[in-house]
What does this fold into?
Amino acid sequence: MTVLLTGGTGYIGSHTATALSEAGHEVILLDNFCNSHRAILERLEKIVGKSVPCIEGDVRDTALVKRTLQEYGVEVVIHLAGLKAVGESVKTPLNYYENNVHGTLSLLRAMDEADVNNMIFSSSATVYGDPQYLPIDEDHPLAPTNPYGRTKLYIEQILEDHVRANDNIKVVNLRYFNPVGSHSSALLGEDPRGIPNNLMPFMARVASGELKELSVFGDDYPTMDGTGVRDYIHVVDLAEGHVAALEFLPRSTGFETFNLGTGSGFSVLQVIQSYEVACGKKIPYQIVKRRPGDIASCYTDPNKANAVLKWKANRSLSEMCLSSWDFQRRLN
Ligand code: NAD
Ligand code: UFG
It folds into this structure.
């Protein structure tokens, strides 16, 4: 199929483009580079062994997106473009609603005008908010606790309404848990601008000596060792989940949601331990107070994705840490 990836040069987009291309699909990327670099494209092309069209532009530019869809004969849009920093979204909510929600509306208009009827959407486990039960399945109540999460929930609702009103529109809604790690070539990976917000990229920079020590946000949660527990998923498994979602689209009847995670939770201390083995050195850390808004534990029930998408996240925590470290070493 011919697939447009909005946000296609970002962390998840670049890995997804690789997996799709390897599965024989044609990919076109569209990105405004607000959180990525053009250099990613060269690395991506090196991995897939052919040139990949990449349009520099914003999803809010309806005319540009429509032209792109028509010019390349796009059949499916994977909509990854968005802002994703929880803390930043609390400080500048309008930027988040403007970019994420308005961006999606503009994209949907362009798709309507170009008669493109299929979308895979990048949502997040953050839409569930504080878990009422574990593991979290797709029917868990939705109650995001920050503006970023609310942009994802509102987009999901807009997409569901759009599907309900149009028999020919299909949307696969993917709620990612915690994507980490890097492509096996070490050419693609997570390289956030500034100081990383998330655990694994922060730890990678501590391991490389760029940052002095890791702060562990709280050791008094009701978990196995008191530190936060998350469902870390290897980004290559996640990318393959998009290939499975694409192959599921013809079988889908309208709007379908899937959680993408492994189903296993690891604590911050367990991740540190695994990273220390991967990089062969100690990660200096200190326990500090809880980060506001954090929850104790979050992991998925992966059964629906496993059964319906015929996809499973197989890569271990150790592979996640090793690949993250390989990528980090290449950067330094
Ligand atoms: P990323 O920042 O690496 O990638 C997003 C890409 O979108 C970037 O390349 C950015 O330049 C581009 N972009 C942003 N706004 C745009 C716009 N208006 N027009 C065109 N391009 C734009 O982030 P990522 O980790 O690859 O995340 C991809 C998607 O997955 C996001 O929607 C994010 O909310 C969602 N998600 C990510 C995580 C995670 O932990 N990484 C978890 C759950 C969901
Ligand atoms: N943590 C630390 N120190 C750090 C960073 C994180 O101890 O420097 C801890 C957190 O307290 C948490 C765990 O590591 O217990 C994971 O934190 P991350 O920031 O890596 O990930 P979150 O689970 O908080 O959130 C991430 C994304 C969200 C997304 C969510 C999906 O940031 O956007 O995963 O589950 F929605």
User: Anything to note?
Assistant: The radius of gyration is 19 Å. The mean pLDDT is 97. The first helix runs from residue 11 to 22. The pocket of nicotinamide-adenine-dinucleotide (ligand 1) is lined by residues 6-7, 9-13, 31-36, 58-60, 80-84, 99, 103, 122, 124, 176, 178-179 (CB under 6 Å).
